Amino acid sequence: MTILRAAIIAALSFLGTSTSAQDITLTSPDGAVEISGTLLGFDGEFYRVETLYGELTVDGSGVNCDGPACPSLTDFVADVTISGAAGMADILMPALLDGFALRNGYTVARDVTDTTHFTYVLKDPDTGADQARFSFKASTTDEGFADLLADEADIAMSLREIREDESRRAYEAGLGNMRSKNRSRVLALNALVPVVAPGNPVSRITAAELARVFTGQIDNWQALGGPDAPITLHVPQQESGLLQAIEDRLLKPAGGKLADTAEYHDQMAALVSAVQRDPFAIGIATYASSGAALRIPLSGGCGFAVHATRRGIKMEDYPLTTPMFLYLPARRLPKIARDFLTYTRGPAAQIVIRRAGFVDQSPEEVSIALQGERFVNAISLAEKTVPLEDLQAIVDRLGNHQRLTTTFRFRPGVSALDAQSQSNAQQLARSLELGTYDGRELVFVGFSDGEGSTDANRTIALRRAQAVRDAVLEAAEAVNRDGLNIAVEGFGEALPMACDESAWGRQVNRRVEVWLK
């Protein structure tokens, strides 16, 4: 802190002292250094000030504050503004704040301004004094990012990854690299699921067919093995993060855009209800909000069917997973906000997330006996693509191990981990630092798609496993490596999760799993 303060004071020595048009003046105790500017924020410890020379963060313990905007140091109340996806603001974030308050001995009051604005106030149970105000604006992912860029929000809630143009504007606005691991975090997991009315005879659909349905290229159920009837389409509201996720994950990879005939719904419950009432409807809902509608598994031409299950979403074996993000600017938040964010990654928060109906990120161990379906699928293809001895090698090496639901996958066309996998790397690194797996063998197991030769695919898979291992160990800065027993393996295309004939199938197959003994 002393070094930081010295650096700031050194920078301030170049500033002028005129304060006529400013609302605060910060002065060092000896009066030698003075800075005037507009107060942008105070987190109970640091002032954030806009000056003629740009934005500065100043340690409050090293200066005196004078001016009409100076905050009180004795009865400071942290103010945190959170804006973005209503799908997170309505249930998930309030549930987590309730859990955080209960765990830390605060009482909670909820003040509702209107249908999109509300405030959670955390209070001291003994005095009733406010300790923090978390103000919410429940709107869309787009508006959350816009508020973050306009300095009208401290945290943005998003149902998709930040886009390149948004990331660029954020960087230009001084918010930092929003794609870095420190600027975003995965709060919980969800998934996009196709839903139909109960009784619909179509029992599965390929990702390619689903894309063609929602781009209007397939408009009759007969093309999917159903009745001769037109298909009606139902999707989330326009400009919502969920609709953008549908575009990014499903439609754009297929080279299409949403059909003009699609019906939009502001609420997921309304979408599901509309689908349930119409025997010829299909919608894209979420795993957490599919209600009584019938979920259709995704399949490929080779016979695989991938269901949206809790474990399948955790493992990212289901291809249309949709992580729920919090994006943070490169500035300090109040301590209580930082404590809340730390809480959201802990085991207590994972229980809250699961009870709220979403998929948590707590790692689960799955025995090989519970993975029969994917081994059956692999064996069914063995004579065509996978040597049986490769499957035998997997069983020999991992037969007495448990698969961890923590799995790593990569962005299309590059070797970088996708957003959910980056979060998994941080979670696994923290577990290693805590000694969770001390005394156990931890095996990073790489797999590939079936393109290329068997030997080349084994090499690629091994290199990916090594790269993931290295990334996790790099993130685990405080780990005691003497207590670790880590190995890497590469089995190539030996255990496919989906058909290689489609781009999404190949994407699912390129992965690194973690196994424990």
Automatic annotation (TrEMBL):
UniProt xrefs under Pfam families: OmpA, PBP_like_2
Keywords: Lipoprotein, Membrane, Signal
Domain spans labelled OmpA-like: 397-517
Signal peptide: 1-21
GO CC field: membrane
The name this protein goes by in its record: Putative outer membrane lipoprotein
UniProt xrefs under InterPro entries: OmpA-like (IPR006665), OmpA-like_sf (IPR036737), PBP_domain (IPR024370), Phosphate_ABC_transporter (IPR050811)
SUPFAM superfamilies: OmpA-like, Periplasmic binding protein-like II
